[in-house]
Design brief:
Layout (H helix, E strand, L loop, with lengths): L2 H48 L1
Length: 51
Amino acid sequence: MSDSKYEILQTRIQQHEETITQLVEIIAVINRRLSDLDRKEREQSHTYSLT
């Protein structure tokens, strides 16, 4: 494999790694938001059931 093809592949792999990292971070933020919403909903339903 020529050096230029190798460098192109290295660049593409690095870009893919960065994209995957960004996607994982986005998923983590969404999961945190969903967890917060779920917790708030359970707290509200628990409050309503006590009254």
